[in-house]
Amino acid sequence: MLLPKFEFHEPGSIKEALELKKKLGSTARLLAGGTDLLVHLKKKIITTDHIISLQRIESLARITAQPDFVEIGACATMAAISGTPVIKEKFSALKSGVDNIGTHLIRNRATLGGNVCNASPAGDSLPALLIYKALVLLESLDGKREMPIEEFFKGPGKTDMKADEILTGFRLPTPPAHSGAHYIQLGKRKSSEINVVNVASFLEFDPKTKIILNARIALGSVAATPIRSLKAEALLKGKIAEETSFYEAGEKARFEDCKPIDDFRGSAAYRRAMVGVLTKRTLTTAFELAGR
Amino acid sequence: MKKIIHLTINELDHEIAVEPNKTLADLLRYDLKLTGTKKGCDTGDCGACTVIMNGDPVNSCLVLAVQANGSRIETVEGLSTDEGIHPIQKAFVEKGAIQCGYCTPGMIMSTKSLLDKNPNPNEQEIREGISGNLCRCTGYTKIFEAIESLRS
Question: For residue A190, what pLDDT band results from cuts at 50, 70 and 90?
């Protein structure tokens, strides 16, 4: 397959990239890892006259750990994120998410910023970003802004990133003590698969009474964007962290929080049923992990 | 407009003028005649085009040649020496891990990357190490055995 002809730009700084974006207009495309963009260009799903590569902007690939938060640059690769100690230790559900994207060959190129900007409802890294309360960091020539990730998604392939902006990274607050999180993706095979349903859950509880202080559940592949399962979360708050509560949360998520569709990967009814199962399982494992 | 890029391929330095819309796979195959690297799907699903870029295996069909500017590339052609073929290639031949041969260069480059990082992979690690490469002859068992025989 041939790639269409385009002009290639390789700015060395975010400012330079923003100036290029302003000059070239909305037809210019940002290139991060390229594992989706080049496929879409080859298949003629999108066209462009200008590609702005972010590869040479070193700050965009950085992962910085602070006591209170970790910042992940938009162009950090899935492989780099997965191999970072703080991600393994404190953000295991995100590690599990990025480890499930494509194949290991893809993960050596694909970036977190790219996965988020593609805004697939089934994206593997997205539910974990939701439950960890990630902030999306955006920059334009007028300044910086940040927003909660769940407000960033506007529909399949659609985000709140404006034409004059670049997504520069993500800030994830360090999870509190006595909390745990887990991610499960359901597909037909392990490698190179698009999810049928994917769920991430986060649980914070009182270590003495086991009363749930906070719960966050994110559902993928069952709505136009990844979504929070707010009714299930509300149900959990104040309950004892145990099997029955997790089951009830799963039922709530299954019947009240998701809006799946029928397609060739699975029926809406099957997806709904699996939302129930995976919500319960992710909560159970999140609780187990927190006990360690 | 063409861009001049510099890259090292199998320890040889190259300075090449390339069109921005040329992939690394096409640069290797059509410009440099290194046709050991194969193109199967051209969309990053099959792994036939696997090369090692700065130490990590990648789908060369999803890397623009201009993105590879300044990098170090290893292809299947770089494996053999004056003393003959590489031990990985030898193991693939001896274990019958080659049927039609189309996936073989990609499989071998994934194997090389796996063993470079982990000389003694367990069963799961071997399976994961070649999970980005498809064999349309379905000869996975023999490929697995070839890699298993190389464990130190």
Answer: confident
Reference A128, options A168, A70, A44; nearest CA is: A70
Average model confidence (pLDDT) across chain A: 95
- CATH class of domain segment(s) A179-290: alpha beta
The number of residues making up chain B comes to 152
What's the one-letter identity of residue B75? T
Contact call for residues A257 and A231 (beta carbons, < 8 A): yes
Q: Which residues of chain B have pLDDT under 70?
A: none
Q: Which CATH number fits domain A7-53: 3.40.50.10260, 3.40.190.10, 3.10.20.30, 3.30.43.10?
A: 3.30.43.10
- CATH number for the segment(s) A58-173: 3.30.465.10
Among the listed residues B140, B31, B119, B118, the one whose alpha carbon sits nearest the alpha carbon of residue B75:
B31
Which structural domain range is residue B7 located in?
Answer: 3-78
Chain B nearest-CA distance from A110, in A, is 10
> Do A3 and B22 make contact, defined as CB atoms within 8 angstroms?
yes
| Model pLDDT for residues A124-133, shown as the tens digit of each residue | 999 999 999 9
Which residues 40-79 on chain B approach chain A with CB closer than 8 angstroms?
42-45, 47, 50, 53, 56-59, 61-64, 66-67
Give the distance from residue A180's alpha carbon to the nearest chain B alpha carbon, in angstroms: 26
* Rounded (10°) CA dihedral B64, B66, B67, B71: 120
Q: At what angle do helices B87-94 and B140-148 cross, to 10 degrees?
A: 130
ipTM: 0.96
Q: In this structure, what DSSP letter does residue A69 have?
A: E
CATH 3.30.390.50 domain range(s) in chain A: 179-290
Which pTM does this prediction carry? Answer: 0.95
Instruction: Give the DSSP H/E element, type plus range, for residue A78.
Output: helix A78-82
The model's pLDDT over A169-182, given as tens digits with 9 standing for 90+, comes to: 999 999 999 999 99
d(CA A215, CA A35): 34
Q: What is the pLDDT of residue A292?
A: 59
- The percentage of residues in chain A with a pLDDT greater than 70, rounded to a whole number, is 99
CB contact under 8 A, B44 and A5: no
